[in-house]
Amino acid sequence: MMETSLRGELTAGRLPNNGDRDLLKAVEKSLRLSSTEELQDVKSYLLPAMMNDATIKSDIMKLKQLKEYNADMTQGNAEGRTALHIACCGGNIEVVQYLLTIGANVHAKDRFGHTPLIDAIENDYHEIISMLRTCGAQLHWEPRIISDKMCAATVVGNIKRLQSYRLAGANISQANFSGQTPLHFAILHRRTKIIKYLLEYGADPRCIDMLGQTPADLVKIATKLSKRINEQSKEQSKAELLMLLDL
C-alpha cells in the first residue's frame, strides 16, 4: 500500500519544491527504515519522480541538486520514463542539453519500447533529434516498421514527420511490408511537396513493390486514370446537358 500511495502522490504532482533532502529524511524516519537497502528502495521511487517533476518544470537547478544527492539520472519511473524521455517529449532543448552533458542514456527504453529519440520524432523536435543523434542515438525499430510510419505520414501530407525520420537516420527509400516506399504513397495521394522533398533527398524512383510497380509506373497509371475520369466526367456532363435540353 505504501508503494501505491507514494506513487499516487507523486503522480499527482504534490511534491514540495524545496527541501528534497528533508523529505527523504522524513520518509526514512516515518517508515522507520532500518537498513540501507530499505532507504534505497524508497529513493528508487522518490528520486525518479523528483527528476521528472523538475524536468517538466524546466528546473535545471533542481536537477543539479538531485545529481549532487547521487540521484541516478538514467533511472526511469514506474513506466520506465527517464528525465531525458520527458525532456525530449516536451521539447525542452536546454534540459535535454544538460542531461546529455551529464551522460543521460540516449538508448533507454520505456515500457512501451520508446527511446528519447522516438519521443523527439513523434513530436517533430528537429533540433533535439540532431542533438540525440550527435550523442549516438539510433532508431531501433525494424526498418519496415519505420517505413510504415513514414508512409502513414505521407498519406496525410505530414512532411515535417518525414523530415524528423530522415534526421533520425531513417532511409526514406525503405520499403514497408508490401514493398512500397513513401514515394509510392506520395504519388498515389498526389502529395506534390512530399514528392519533391523525397526526390531531393535521394528517394529511389525505381523501387519495386510486391505488385512489381515502381513509383514511375504509378505516375503512368495515375495519369491514365485521371484522363479516363476526365473523359467520363465530360461524357456525363454532355448527357446531363442533353437531358436538360430535352434532346
From TrEMBL:
InterPro entries: Ankyrin_rpt, Ankyrin_rpt-contain_sf, Multifunctional_ANK_Repeat. SUPFAM superfamilies: Ankyrin repeat. It holds the Pfam family Ank_2. Keywords: ANK repeat, Repeat. Coiled coil: none annotated. ANK repeats lie at residues 79-111, 178-210. PANTHER family: ANKYRIN REPEAT-CONTAINING, PROTEIN HOS4. This is L-asparaginase-like. The lineage of its organism: Eukaryota, Metazoa, Ecdysozoa, Arthropoda, Hexapoda. The gene is LOC106742340.
